[in-house]
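Trying the structure run again after the queue cleared.
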Amino acid sequence: MPDQSANPSPKSRAIAAGGISVGVASSGAMGSGVGSSSQLSKSNISRAGFDAFELATVLSHYDVGVIQGLHEFRRGSTRSPKVVLKSERGVYLLKRRAPGRDNELKVAFCHGVQLHLAARRFPLARLIGDRRSNNSLVVHEKSIYELFEYVPGNSYDGSIPSTRAAGRALAQFHKCLADHRPTWTPRSGGYHNEAKVLPHLDRIPEKLGLSEGDGAHCCEALHSAYARAADHAREAGLADWPAQVIHGDWHPGNMLFQANGEIAAVVDFDAARVEPRALDLANGALQFSIVRQGENPEDWQDNLDEDRLQAFCRGYDEVEGCTISLAEINLLPWLMIEALIVEVVVPIAATGSFGQLEGLGFLRMVQRKVAWIEEHARRLTDLIR
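Done. C-alpha cells:
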C-alpha cells in the first residue's frame, strides 16, 4: 500500500495545508436532527457514475494490487460518483469530485488539513497517494479523483455517549489543528456572514409567491432574528477572536461511530475554513441537539434536546486545553440561531423547497425553533457552564 502520508497535488503543493471530503458517510447537515436536502431526497434520483475506461484509467495511477471487486457507493452528492473497491491490499473508496467542488487550490487546502490530522492520529479516512509521486489527487480529463481507505462504522444513534464522543472529537480536531498554518486559505463562506445571508431571506417571499400574511411574516421574523443574533456576535467581538482551521460542517452525518459509541472516522472536510472555533462548536451543538419527530416539519418540537446539548459540550470540555470559554458559552445560542437559519434559507431561496419538503412549512418550523432558542438563551448558557 502506498505511504499514507500522501502529498497534495503537485500544482498546489506550495500552497497546500488542509482536509478532504470523503463521502464515506455523508448523510446531510443536521444529521439525525432536521435533515438536509440530500438526506430527504428520493432514493431514485439520477446519480452521476463512472464508465469502465474512466475507472481503469484512474485506478492505474494507484498501487492497490489486483482488484477483486467493486460496487457503487450511493451516498453523498449525486453529482459526485463513488465506488468501493476491494483489492488484495485492502478496501478503498474512489471518488470523483462534483463540478464546482473541484477547485484545485481548495482541494489542496483540504488535503493539507486531512494530512495534518492523519499525522496526529486523528480518526478519519486516510488519503491514498498515487503510485508515481504519492500525490493525494489524480487529475483525468479535467476531473479530480481521490482515493481513501474505506472505514466501516455505524450511523449516529442519538445516545448520550455518542453525543459526548462527538463533542470530544471536535475538541481533538481543534487541538490538532491549532498549530496548522496553511499558506493559502479559502474565502470564508460560513453561516456568520450577514451580508450574504440577509439577501437570501429577502428573496424568499418572491420565490414562494408570498404577499402579506403568515408566510411573509415568517420571513420577516427570521430576518429580524438573524440580525439580532449577528448583533450579539458583533457586541461580543467575535471578529477579533482567534481564528484557526475549523471543520465547518460538524454534524452526525459526517462521522462514523464504533459499536462502543466512540468515533471511527470524521469525514467530509469540504467546508473547512479559517474562523473562530466557536462557529464549529455552536453548529455542532445545534446539530447534535436538534429534535425531529416524524416526517412533517409542522409536527416537530420547538425545543432542543438539552441532555444531548449538555453532553456534546461536556465532551468538548473533557479534552485538555479545550475548555469552552465563558465568552463562547454566552454567544453559543446566538450562533446556533445563525446556523439554523442559514441551513435552510439558502436552499429555499434557491429552489423554493428544502429537499423534498415544501419551503414555507419548513420555514415555519425553523421560525419556531429559532424563537425557542432565543427565549431560552440564558437557560442554555447556564446548562453548559
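Residues 326-351 form the longest helix (26 residues). Worth checking whether this holds up in the mutant runs.
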